[in-house]
Amino acid sequence: MKVKKPIPFGKALIEARVERGISQYRLAKLVNRDSRYISQLENNKREPRLSTIMMLARALDMETWELVQKVDTIMDSPKDTTN
Questions:
Q1: Average pLDDT value for residue range 19-27
Q2: What is the pTM of this model?
Q3: At 21, which CATH number?
Q4: Which pLDDT band holds residue 1 (cuts at 50, 70, 90)?
Q5: Whole-angstrom distance, CA of residue 81 vs CA of residue 83
Q6: 25 in a domain, yes or no?
Q7: Residue 66: how many CA atoms within 13 Å on its side-chain side?
Q8: pLDDT at 81 over 70
Q9: In the 3-class helix/strand/coil scheme, how is the chain assigned residue by residue?
Q10: Dihedral sign, Cα of residue 37, residue 56, residue 19, residue 16
């Protein structure tokens, strides 16, 4: 039986946010969410809906596919540390 690897959305979100110099608080305001929600996403405690991923990507001034590709790249990385 193959073990499912967790999706490291949080790590991708942190990388994208830090690359752009945006705080969790600022990102939360841009997407009309609470900063605790952003923290939960970044710590992989919650999984975002597609609409949320789209809003986050826009707020980070990137295309949705770029954010998803970042997740995919992290998943393919041999030294993946999702938490």
A1: 97
A2: 0.84
A3: 1.10.260.40
A4: low
A5: 6
A6: yes
A7: 12
A8: no
A9: CCCCCCCCHHHHHHHHHHHCCCCHHHHHHHCCCCHHHHHHHHCCCCCCCHHHHHHHHHHCCCCHHHHHHHHHHHHHCCCCCCC
A10: positive
pLDDT digits (tens, 9 = 90+) for 39-72: 999 999 999 999 999 999 999 999 999 999 999 9
Report residue 79 as tokens.
């030294």
State the Cα–Cα distance between residues 66 and 75, nearest whole angstrom. Answer: 14
57: nearest Cα among 19, 83, 4: 19
For 64, the token pair is 């949705």
Q: List the domain range (segments joined by +) for residue 53.
A: 9-76
